[in-house]
Write a structure and sequence with these properties.
InterPro entries: DUF3267. The protein is an alpha+beta fold. 55% of the residues lie in helices and 18% in strands.
């Protein structure tokens, strides 16, 4: 780091989950808005259950009519993970970052994308953090109208994706505690570290 850069946190990639949990502020405006968003997703999911059971011609019998459909549905989850991290990568590129890389902590249950040695400031980070949540959920919402017979599955994917995006929300909330033109985050792939620092 340069003399005018003050490190406020340095986190090993494998410890990112612990860092997030240790810095949660569930009373922040961002978390309150996120909770409201999750409530709406739950309501949409319940509506999809009701619609599937009472109104859908296929109903839950769609699985007995096509046993392979369950396998196709299961494939949606790894595809969702790849899509989520892929959108992060595109967002990194969009804000000018280079050297994108991916990683996973399987035992701790999370995946991540990073930009090696590419500093991201407080104005750029919301684009990186929120792009998957909004892009993928918007795509799934459009898919609901194209494939109404699969509304329960699609709404379930939307709900799970919204819930599992909380790590992105938590990191964004952490960054927002500091002036957006002074706070930066920097990934170091070789050291497997993420730095948060203030540039004076």
């Amino acid at each position: 780091m340069e003399p005018h850069q003050k490190i406020i946190a340095q986190v090993k990639h494998q410890d990112m989950k612990a860092f997030i949990l240790g810095n949660l502020n569930l009373n922040s405006k961002l978390w309150k808005r996120y909770r409201t968003f999750l409530y709406l997703m739950v309501i949409a999911w319940l509506v999809a259950i009701f619609w599937t059971f009472y109104y859908s011609e296929a109903g839950f019998g769609i699985f007995s009519k096509n046993p392979l459909l369950s396998i196709y549905y299961l494939l949606g989850f790894p595809i969702l993970i790849l899509a989520h991290e892929g959108v992060h990568a595109i967002a990194y590129k969009w804000v000018g970052a280079n050297n994108i890389y991916f990683g996973a902590e399987i035992r701790k249950g999370y995946f991540y994308a990073g930009a090696d040695r590419s500093p991201i400031n407080g104005k750029q980070f919301p684009i990186v953090a929120l792009s998957p949540l909004f892009t993928i959920n918007l795509f799934l919402l459009m898919l609901l109208f194209v494939l109404p017979a699969h509304s329960l599955y699609i709404s379930t994917i939307m709900l799970l994706h919204s819930f599992f995006s909380q790590g992105d929300i938590a990191l964004l909330d952490y960054m927002k505690r500091f002036p957006e033109d002074q706070i930066f985050t920097l990934d170091d792939r070789q050291k497997e570290m993420t730095y948060y620092y203030l540039q004076e």
